[in-house]
Design goal:
The complex is a heterodimer.
Chain A lengths: L18 H4 L5 E11 L6 E11 L3 E5 L6 H8 L7 E6 L2 E2 L8 E4 L11 H5 L1 H6 L6 H10 L15 H13 L5 E5 L7 H18 L2 E6 L2 H7 L2 E6 L4 E7 L9 H4 L5 H20 L1
Parallel strand pairs in A: 3-8, 3-9, 6-7, 7-8
Antiparallel strand pairs in A: 1-2, 1-4, 4-5, 9-10
Helix pairs in contact in A: 8-10
Chain B lengths: L1 H17 L10 H50 L5 H4 L2 H14 L1 H30 L4 H15 L3 H12 L3 H25 L3 H9 L4 H38 L5 H10 L3 H31 L4
The chains are: A alpha/beta, B mainly alpha.
């Protein structure tokens, strides 16, 4: 056992964690404090007492079965949804229930507007927030980096699903967010492209020090990308395990990271935790 | 022969079943890749050959039905099988249209009805659509007013037209009001529903970019509602024309409706049918214009 994973059977951190205490970790980018969610008019609790944090530059992934409230949690962290209780703290500032310009997000749905060209779609963020001027040079570089050069003036319906997803990622990245939320963002991409873009993403965020909170059900993806993984169970969504990932591999290339000796062990452990959560629920 | 075609039709079916939710439910990425490839190839193949061949077949069948119908009517009328007094004949209708055209009454009547319909349509269909879109700004006002709007929409034009004629006189304005009345509610409800059907995830994307309400309206809600708007704009061409003609039926001294009422009162079936033909041609002309507008929207990827 070379990993230093911390297994918490009771994941709820002491509810008395205050912002003052938070400042001791001087580099926390995002802190979620005992967030619970029950939709109005629906008794079933979707999320129960979720607490987690992401450090600056850290890649944190949530793995869980369907119905574990991943998307609800995602919307709460993005500030698009107010939780029933609990707080979202972005860069030491309470930011519960309102979108922060420090956070960018990418969904599995590309959400490109069909009546806008790819360039106009990608530059939607700066256009809507006024405060940022659109740097033509930066956009050209972005289109090159994401292999979409030449498609600037195409419309979304002229692009393949993978290309559209890359455009969606560019749209988020153009805002230079400190924290990037990704919900199954690469699910629709074909495998080689997915690996390529994930490697690129790692290069980029390790370089820029951006924090990533990634949601997926793909354990392989979780292990190869993440610094730390939270495992969720469903009905209600709760964190059942937290795991630090250390692959003895310095490369950001996903195919090389996949071959690290610790990979299978992590994979097994996560799989067992996820599976036992599903089994418990069935009982 | 049939065995040869089986595999391709099987993939087509498979692709079709995947198509509606290709974004949401495919579990492995590699699976989805092959699915999408299969879908692309079969779609192209089907559109390329059988599609056009089938549409040519349908068109020629439609022409044949029309020829048989009109030809049979004409022959029947000439050989005494069809009563000319009750049903007239195609050649008689055409003759009436030509005579009216020569006298100049045809274009006058068309002009009157066309103007009434156009102005009524602009006020009712376009104005109603704009109002419906604007209702997006206040869910409160929309919720409060919707039952009243629906109640107004349930009134048949024919029931209120006599009253509108009394209020607005027997001239041009009353016909415009009746025409506008008959399309405003449909336009309003359709366009409001269009705004309600905008993808919530797209609204949240705008929210995450901290877009203002006005930005969201002009850059998302209006363009995303265009397909729904086009449906109501097409429907309302008919409604506006019905409104104008109903107005003319009740009280008028010109217009296609006037021509039909006068002819009907004197049992001139041929002239009534000539009026019907003119109404159909008017609708056809309107639809051509709308088709062109739709084409422009499609070019801009709005419809």
């Amino acid at each position: 056992m070379t990993n230093t994973s911390t297994t918490e059977t009771n994941p709820s951190q002491p509810s008395g964690v205050h912002s003052a205490a938070l400042k001791e970790h001087s580099k926390t980018a995002l802190e979620i404090l005992s967030v619970s969610m029950t939709y109005p008019g629906n008794d079933a609790e979707v999320l129960r007492d979720i607490s987690f944090h992401a450090d600056k530059g850290e890649f944190v992934t949530f793995v869980g079965p369907s119905g574990c409230g991943k998307s609800t949690l995602f919307n709460i962290v993005a500030g698009l949804l107010a939780p029933s209780s609990g707080s979202v703290i972005v860069d030491y500032k309470e930011n519960t229930g309102s979108p922060s310009d420090k956070i960018g997000y990418v969904l599995q749905k590309d959400l490109l507007l069909p009546w806008r060209t790819i360039r106009k779609n990608v530059t939607l963020g700066p256009e809507l927030s006024h405060n940022r001027h659109i740097d033509a040079q930066q956009i050209t570089e972005l289109f090159h980096a994401y292999h979409l050069h030449g498609y600037e003036d195409s419309y979304p319906d002229q692009l393949s699903g993978g290309m559209r997803q890359r455009a969606a990622l560019m749209r988020a990245m153009l805002m230079n967010p400190e924290i990037i939320l990704m919900d199954e963002a690469y699910k629709a991409l074909d495998y080689p492209l997915k690996i390529e873009l994930e490697s690129e993403l790692l290069d980029r965020v390790k370089d820029s020090g951006q924090t990533v909170v990634f949601v997926t059900h793909d354990i392989e993806e979780a292990v190869t990308l993440s610094d730390r993984i939270y495992i969720l169970k469903a009905h209600p969504g709760e964190i059942v395990d937290e795991m630090q990932i250390h692959l003895s591999c310095n490369s950001n290339k996903i195919n090389e990271r996949r071959l690290a000796p610790e990979f299978n062990e992590y994979y097994e452990r996560i799989w067992k935790t996820v599976e036992s959560g599903i089994r418990q629920e069935k009982r | 022969m049939t065995e040869k075609f089986e595999p391709s039709s099987a993939t087509a079916k498979l692709a079709e079943s995947v198509l509606p939710n290709k974004d949401s439910q495919v579990s492995s990425s590699e699976k989805s890749k092959t699915m999408q490839k299969a879908k692309g190839k079969t779609a192209v193949r089907r559109k390329g050959k059988t599609g056009t061949r089938q549409s040519v077949g349908i068109t020629s069948l439609q022409v044949a039905i029309l020829v048989v119908f009109i030809g049979g009517w004409e022959l029947g009328a000439n050989h005494g099988i069809i009563n000319k007094f009750l049903f007239s004949s195609p050649s008689a209708v055409v003759q009436i249209l030509i005579n009216q055209f020569r006298r100049g009454t045809l274009m006058d009547n068309v002009q009157v009805t066309l103007n009434e319909t156009l102005v009524g349509y602009l006020i009712g269909a376009i104005g109603g659509s704009v109002l419906g879109l604007l209702l997006w700004f206040s869910k409160f006002i929309a919720d409060v007013s919707m039952p009243f709007i629906a109640a107004i929409g349930s009134i048949p034009v024919l029931a209120v037209a006599p009253m509108l004629i009394i209020w607005f006189g027997t001239g041009f304005i009353s016909k415009v009001v009746v025409a506008a009345f008959s399309c405003i509610v449909v336009a309003l409800i359709q366009s409001y529903e269009g705004t309600e059907k905008v993808d919530n995830d797209q609204i949240e994307l705008f929210r995450s970019f901290r877009a203002s309400r006005l930005q969201m309206f002009t850059k998302l809600i209006v363009p995303a509602s265009m397909p729904w708007l086009m449906v109501s704009l097409k429907l309302n061409v008919g409604f506006a024309l019905i409104g104008a003609i109903v107005g003319e039926f009740i009280s008028s001294n010109a217009g296609i409706g006037h021509m039909i009422v006068v002819a009907g009162a004197s049992f001139e079936i041929g002239e009534v049918l000539a009026g019907v033909v003119l109404v159909m041609l008017l609708v056809l002309a309107f639809n051509l214009v709308l088709g062109a507008i739709n084409g422009i929207l499609r070019k801009r990827h709005l419809a």
